[in-house]
Amino acid sequence: MLALLGISTIVVLLVLIMSKKVSAVVALIAVPVLAALVGGFGARVATFMTDGIREIAPTGVMFIFAILFFGILTDAGTFRPIIERLLRLAGRDPARVALATALLAMIVHLDGSGAVTFLVTVPAFLPLYDALGMRRTTLATLVALGAGTMNILPWGGPTLRAASALGVPVTDLFNPLLVPVGAGLLFVLLLAYRMGMRDRGREANIPIPVNPEAGSEAPGAADLERPALFGFNIFLILGSVAALVSGFAPPHVVFMLAFAVAVSINYPNIRQQAERVNAHAKAALLMAGILFAAGCLTGILKGSGMIDAMAQSAVEVIPAWVGTHLPVLTGLASVPASLLFDPDSFYFGVLPLLASTFEYFGGSGIEVGQAAIMGQMTTGFPVSPLTGSTYLLVGLTGVELGDHQRRTLPYAFLVTLLILVVSLLMGVITF
Q1: Which pTM value belongs to this model?
Q2: Per the domain annotation, does 431 fall within a domain?
Q3: Share of residues in the chain with pLDDT > 70 (%)
């Protein structure tokens, strides 16, 4: 009975979210509550929800302050000198232009926003690509690979969702993947160099009608920029990331303190501080709302016993050779899954069941989560038709969606495969 109720809950949740009948926040709250009431749990539903929200609270707080922190530094123009330097170094060499494209996408995607990454990177490089006769599909692919691989970072949406769904600290999920993800980023740079080399023979040999500073403005008005604080802000970013990865302090503490320092130093005026917080509040609130709503879902599924019942039922029908290799199979399917599932439906609907099933086969559910974030809406998000930022990318580059997918999907899968193989060799994922 519980297994059937749990499966029905997930199916209804997936249908509602993917069909866009209701918002993800509403579905994540209403569907499990109704299911629990149907299951006869009555007054205990409130306890389940509270337990789930309490478990997810640190992750939600971390995301809010990470968005505010990187938003403040973007407003302060922290990335502008880096963008201008990359454009100058690229010159007329397609290989260097391609490398600079991937690097810039990675750097700008530190704030975790695909839309911002595309809006900054594409206009900065598009005139250069056209002047050198380079393929626009190359530009779209490299921006997608750079942003997609960086989306695995601890404050990226998929990683936050996976940690929340599994009820584990985000650093426990990400830190073991630090080296594999680093290898993935280096592989993206290697791919960029190779693509640039291929485009060398296509040079248009015409003057380059581009100002190195054109299109490189950070999303903030000029009067908000603090060029004198560039060194301090870069140090603050590096220090925060180092503290996060080292485990010196919990992630939510790191970003709360980093935000407080960043906003106080860059905008000491209280009115400006309030304006900067308000400017980024919408993005922070939208994702935080989804995370806390997901806490209701996971709290009810776990507290009621539905997730355990579903896992037990799955063990009875899944062959042992499949069950014992679920992390590897999840990693291999993660990029294609981006074409079928949006991040909310996958991480809050599918991942908990996969993780619990693997635990019944004697494994650690966190491995399934780690395998999932290698591709599902990370390397796979800029090619997915389910994300609005994909259409922004192809619109800015003037590339057809089908052409972009055909060119980028194989590379995205290769990057994910490399991360998976390195994880297997390091023992992060068991085979």
Answers
A1: 0.81
A2: no
A3: 95
Q: What DSSP letter does each residue of 159-219 carry, written as one string?
A: HHHHHHHHT--HHHHHGGGHHHHHHHHHHHHHHHHHHHHHGGGG---S-----TTTT---S
Give the pLDDT of residue 202. 60
Q: Is the pLDDT of residue 211 over 80?
A: no
- Lowest mean pLDDT: which of 15-19, 253-257, 346-350? 15-19
Question: For residues 213 and 211, what is the distance between their CA atoms, to the nearest angstrom?
Answer: 5
Whether residue 291 lies inside any domain: the answer is yes
Inter-residue contact 175 to 428 (CB < 8 Å): no
Burial of 238: CB neighbours in 10 Å, binned 0-12, 13-18, 19+: exposed
- What total of structural domains would you count in the chain? 1
Between 166 and 246, name the one with better pLDDT.
Answer: 166
Query: Given this model, what pLDDT does residue 203 score?
Result: 54
Of the chain, the percentage scoring pLDDT greater than 90 comes to: 39
d(CA 143, CA 106): 8
Integer CA distances (angstroms), 124 to 101, 318, 320, in order: 9, 50, 51
Is residue 182 situated within a structural domain?
A: yes
Q: Are 237 and 110 in contact (CB under 8 A)?
A: yes
Residues 73 and 262: their CA atoms lie apart, in Å, by 7
Burial class of 311 by CB neighbour count within 10 A (0 to 12, 13 to 18, 19+): buried
Q: What is the residue range of 219's domain?
A: 2-426
CB 126 within 8 A of CB 397: yes
